Amino acid sequence: MNAGAQPRVVAANVLDAVLHHGRSLKAELAAGLPALRDPRDRALVEAICFAALRIRHRGDAALAAWIPRPLPRRDAPLRALLLAGFAQLDPLGLPAHAALAATVDAAREMGRAHQSGLVNALLRRAQRDGLPEGDWRDLWPSWLRGRLKADWPDAFEDIITAGNTQAPTWLRVNRLRGTREDYLQRLQAAGIEAQLVDGLDDALRIDGSLPVALLPGFADGDVSVQDGAAQQVADALAPPRGARVLDACAAPGGKSAHLLERDPTLRLVALDIDAARLRKVGENFARLGVGASASLHVADATDTAAWWDGEPFDAILLDAPCSATGIVRRQPDVLLHRREQDIVSLARLQASLLDALWPLLAPGGTLLYATCSILRDENERQVDAFLGRTPDAAAEALAETFGHPAGAGRQRLPGEGGMDGFFHARLRKRA
Ligand SMILES: C[S@@+](CC[C@H](N)C(=O)[O-])C[C@H]1O[C@@H](n2cnc3c(N)ncnc32)[C@H](O)[C@@H]1O
Q: What confidence tens digit (pLDDT) does each residue in 78-88 have?
């Protein structure tokens, strides 16, 4: 077998599951990548899958124009492989000869030897003529376009462009292990270009994507991958030293770990409703050398009677489950799987989390409400409604100047400062 065929088979299988069986890209990559030993092959599969989902409208336009009849259902895996093949040429720009040979070989590996000639012909045509432009509206569902236009009329086009653009890689240097200046030098010694970022004390930014296995000291906990917007949360919550802190929706633990890297004396309680995801919190803490005295619970945060011991928290982070509409560039399958009805149920869940957690906050304490959504129903309207029904809650003025004012909070739109779309508001309990 052509050595490059296996990553193409894995990419096609992941795309087939995501495109045709409603599966999540993250979960399919997590299941498929371990089959590949070489970290560069794993990085290639990720790059192909992301790029293929971003050019899905152009790939489908090519298939509609270049083959006489639409592919039947039984050829869904072939469509996935063809989209993977197109993406390697544009936007990934891989050497065409090798990409074509490996993708045609992958067709044979997938039991589609009888269609390998078709794969070869279509990829050659894409190489020669380029893919048609397609219609980007085929990528973004009309309900979401409507909401984004209503919520952000002036920024609508920038939001779409950012969603269709590859994100940079953001690193968070573990300050318990060394400075980011030292880590920058280690990256340079490994031939990796990165930049310091003003205003984010632990952050480094690398253009494009990079497999974590290539990051010096990753396995030893010297560094994590975390978007710059998510790294703002530790500053925004800023719990007092040694405070008792609740992270109510903690998994996989990025923000909790950052808080603990900054202050290992915090008395942290981390919850998540999803046991498998909560295990990741423990694994991340162990890798980073934090959280030895943190307590982790699988729990529904709204069911406080089941998990709360009655001792109030000085600070609460509610990084709420949301539509993820601010991170389409990192989760392009949001555009395939999210339904308008989900926004109503997510907003209801967010409201019940706010209502259930507020009584657990000590007088004078702070609750930071955050989401990676850019929809006003989940963000400023959610917070405004909460303030309206909660007499002892007050919005704190934010010193932060990023993004856009949004009711009591601030909203960063995707791509601004190179970061993800993100909202946060800080709420103080009156003493
Ligand atoms: C946005 S993610 C949290 C990301 C995390 N704070 C981090 O920085 O790594 C939201 C999390 O909320 C969890 N979740 C959803 N509903 C919940 C509930 N009722 N109680 C507790 N956790 C919940 C989900 O399983 C998911 O892990």
A: 999 999 999 99
